[in-house]
């Protein structure tokens, strides 16, 4: 028997989270939540941008880091989430 899964769920009985979501629907009270990587992961890796159980983002890009690619990587500064402008701290402006 195949089920028509709600958004975020996958599998023959909707017993796992769909790609781009994380959680453990087999645990009572747990749900599948969308990955929150702040668009700082490779868009070509949409289906593997975060860990399926923990939601931790994989392969942060654009000089970002953190569990959800929410901070600038070491040696960079700026706003990783809204402005998306993590730049090198050693970069000097052109005169």
From TrEMBL:
Source superkingdom: Eukaryota
Gene3D superfamilies: Laminin
Alphabetical GO biological process terms: animal organ morphogenesis; axon guidance; tissue development
Secreted is among the record's keywords: yes
Bridged cysteine pairs (disulfide): 5-14, 60-69, 72-86
Keyword Cell division annotated: no
A single GO cellular-component term on record: extracellular region
GO MF, one annotated term: extracellular matrix structural constituent
SMART domains: EGF_Lam (SM00180)
Domain Laminin EGF-like per the UniProt entry, residue ranges: 1-34, 35-88
Subcellular location field: Secreted, Extracellular space, Extracellular matrix, Basement membrane
Keywords (A to Z) from UniProt: Basement membrane, Disulfide bond, Extracellular matrix, Glycoprotein, Laminin EGF-like domain, Repeat, Secreted, Signal
Pfam family, one: EGF_laminin
Name of this chain's protein: Laminin EGF-like domain-containing protein
Organism field: Oncorhynchus mykiss (Rainbow trout)
